[in-house]
Amino acid sequence: MFIVILSAILGLMTVYLWKRLVKDTTAPGRVRWILTAVLLALTVLLLATLVLPRVTGVPEAAWLAWPGYLWLGLLAYLFLTLLVLEPVRLVAWALLKRARPDAVAAAPTTTPEPAPESAPAVNRRVFIARASAVAAGAASVGLVAAGAANALGPPDLLRVPVRLRRLDPAFNGFRIAVVSDVHLGPLSGRAHTERIVRMINEAEPDLVAIVGDLVDGTVEQLGAAAEPLRDLNSREGTFFVTGNHEYFVDDTSSWLRELERLGVQPLQNENTAIRRGGAAFDLVGVNDIAGDSRSTPPDFERALTGVDLSGPTVLLAHQPVQVVDAAARGVDLQLSGHTHGGQMWPFHYVVGAVQPSLAGLSTVSDTQLYVSRGAGFWGPPVRVGAPPDISVLTLQSDA
Asked: Which of 180, 246, 306, 377 has a Cα at 20 to 30 A from 337?
């Protein structure tokens, strides 16, 4: 059903683009046929990129995914910019149409050879359509190019101080590196992981938290890309909770075993105490909501079993919306990802409608929520208004 709905939406968007970029800007003939064929070829490419791996089970190939996902980003921005230009186009057409009688009134009284009545209107219409197409094309290409440079460049390293209630002063200055949504796959491989590991190690954290959506594929496909995670260095170790994309593969448990082999400790609805001398706080991890499809849903009661309620609790949960359950149970700080910060403006409005926070530090009831924009991307290798990040949270006692 998802594939059918997605294909229908992309089909309608493509028809609209054909009308505005091809039919309205060209006369019937060879040029129109060529442009139509190009648009159809790009549509087939996009559908092959999105649909074939999900229908056939064949892994996505980089040679197909790169042009396919870049066209998806360009398609989205062409559609949006043309929609924005619709009122401008209509106003320009009305002004030109109104100016036509004035030009006739100012003409000499001698009557020249009459021109076909429809010619001026057709010329004006084509001129406005071509001007709109050029403006939309320039804006869209510029946005996608800048967004691709942003997405493929190094993540921002954000340093965020967080005051935590009940935190023992022994933990003042304790650094947690938070990374999410790495999305290893056909467009992001081993070099992407190596850069993330290098940036985290240079920040010298005490603990590393990977909060989901690490991979978009199986261990067989992406095991080599994930292998640099074994080089992460921190005093307390590296911990991981599942995101929704970990459940898109057939065997989630194979990734959990692989991460353990690489020295990354999964927290599957469980907790562990982080200690400094006689002081401690509880680090808790819950499965992603998508785990319900594999009979491994988030289980807060199980995850919080044995937690010392007199001390602070730090929760790893992929989706910010899980903070509702966390706040109801007195969790002090939740670390999440999932949103990508919206990834491509203005789509952050859609994400913001279903999540309590897009990025950064906020408060829900008495629970602090920190949301990373993620270190990677999904779909188009494009980030507009939402640069990737790795966050280092420095804990401070509120005493």
From this structure: 306
pLDDT digits (tens, 9 = 90+) for 26-35: 999 999 999 9
In sequence order, the 6+-apart residues with CB closer than 8 A to the CB of 105 are: none
What DSSP assignment string belongs to 53-65? Answer: HHHH-PPPPHHHH
Asked if residue 237 and residue 197 are part of one domain, the reply reads: yes
Strand partners, 176: 207, 393
Residue 93 half-sphere exposure, CB side, CA atoms within 13 Å? Answer: 17
- At 229, which amino acid appears? L
Confidence (pLDDT) at 101? 56
Pairing assessment for the beta strands 333-336 and 238-240 based on DSSP bridges: unpaired
Q: Do residue 133 and residue 167 come from a single domain?
A: no
How far apart CA 89 and CA 97 sit, in angstroms, is: 12
> Can you give the residue range of the structural domain that contains 46?
2-105+118-150
Say which CATH number the domain at 275 has.
3.60.21.10
Residue 111 lies in a domain: no
Q: Which amino acid is at 250?
A: D
From CA 135, how far away is CA 231, in angstroms rounded? 48
d(CA 378, CA 153): 15
Q: Are 32 and 23 in contact (CB under 8 A)?
A: yes
Counted domains in the chain: 2
Model confidence pLDDT, tens digit, residues 328-356: 999 999 999 999 999 999 999 999 999 99
> Nearest to residue 17, comparing CAs of 133, 134, 144, 135?
133
Q: Verify that 280 and 371 share a domain, yes or no.
A: yes
